[in-house]
Write a structure and sequence with these properties.
Elements: H1 2-10, H2 19-30, H3 32-49, H4 51-54, H5 86-122, H6 124-139, H7 142-153, H8 157-183, H9 187-194, H10 199-207, H11 212-235, H12 247-252, H13 254-257, H14 264-291
Length: about 300
């Protein structure tokens, strides 16, 4: 009996995994498509942050002798009509997409959280007036608003970031408001109100932490939406002006002009855009299923 006790005591206790590792394990186990999207999303971030190191050539390094070269070991994505390496230009395009996507998505998320939390918690006439304004804002086509604003203020990265942040932030406040309306009826919120807690304290300590799941999902999906919208503007010539190699600009410039002579000019940025946006949306859907307790995947 003593030997059994000694053997039992000799076995070290099993260490519990942290919440982050546990969540990553659930992501790969329950949502393999979302996990694949997360891997692509991380690779996209890595390529965008370290494009200066990863790119084998400069983004506008011209070599006329290498004009319209097909994909090879020297140029994995081929070259364009001026002899510029398409792989390098796509990597620098990822860098611009990371900057625009994350900055605009951050602005949009902050606006959505502020409007949604205040409107959902206060309710009453303030909520009624604000939601009618949101309805009117959402009734306008997004692309038309973007084209009008950029045509007035001019193309450029700051203009696109602020415009997309406002456009998506006001529309996304409806999602946060719905989550806040369901949270404010819980008993702990009523208990905080009965003890005389201030409105700011209730919003900061009780409402906001319990709506972080939709906030995280909203931010993730907004990144893909911003990248797609910026590419559409660049394709129309209203995005970041050349010679900055945005993915939409690559499709609209040499990619459209020399598509028949060099199909890789349109395939390379088009595939990058498709894969990144699709992976981002799959990752956002997986986060929603895992973080929202009302979803089946969160069990």
């Amino acid at each position: 009996m003593a030997s059994v006790v000694e053997t039992t005591l000799a076995i070290p206790p099993r260490r519990k995994r942290g919440p982050v590792l546990h969540f990553i394990g659930r992501l790969f186990r329950e949502k393999p498509l979302g996990a694949a999207g997360a891997v692509v999303f991380v690779l996209f971030l890595f390529c965008g942050l370290f494009a200066d190191v990863l790119a084998p050539y400069g983004m506008n390094q011209i070599a006329p002798l290498n004009r319209l070269k097909p994909p090879s070991w020297a140029f994995p994505f081929g070259t364009d009509n001026l002899g510029r390496d398409m792989l390098s230009r796509c990597l620098y395009g990822a860098q611009l997409s990371v900057i625009i996507g994350f900055c605009a998505a951050s602005i949009a998320t902050v606006i959505s959280v502020v409007l949604g939390v205040v409107s959902g918690y206060l309710g009453g006439k303030f909520d009624l007036v604000l939601q009618r304004f949101v309805d009117a804002w959402m009734s306008f086509p997004d692309l038309i608003i973007l084209i009008v604003v950029v045509s007035v203020v001019g193309p450029g990265m700051p203009q696109i970031i602020v415009t997309l942040g406002l456009l998506l932030g006001i529309a996304g406040s409806r999602i946060i408001r719905g989550a806040v309306v369901s949270v404010r009826e819980n008993m702990y919120v009523h208990a905080a109100q009965s003890t005389g807690a201030s409105t700011f304290r209730i919003l900061w300590r009780h409402i906001l932490p319990n709506v972080m799941a939709p906030v995280i999902v909203l931010f993730t999906t907004r990144v893909g939406t911003v990248i797609l919208a910026e590419s559409g503007l660049s394709f129309l010539g209203l995005g970041v002006p050349p010679p900055a190699p945005t993915w939409g600009g690559l499709l609209s410039g040499s990619g459209r002009t020399y598509m028949l002579q060099g199909p890789w000019l349109a395939l390379a940025p088009g595939l990058c855009l498709t894969v990144v946006v699709y992976a981002t949306n799959m990752f956002g859907d997986a986060l929603r299923d895992l973080l929202d307790p009302r979803m089946r995947g969160s069990r």
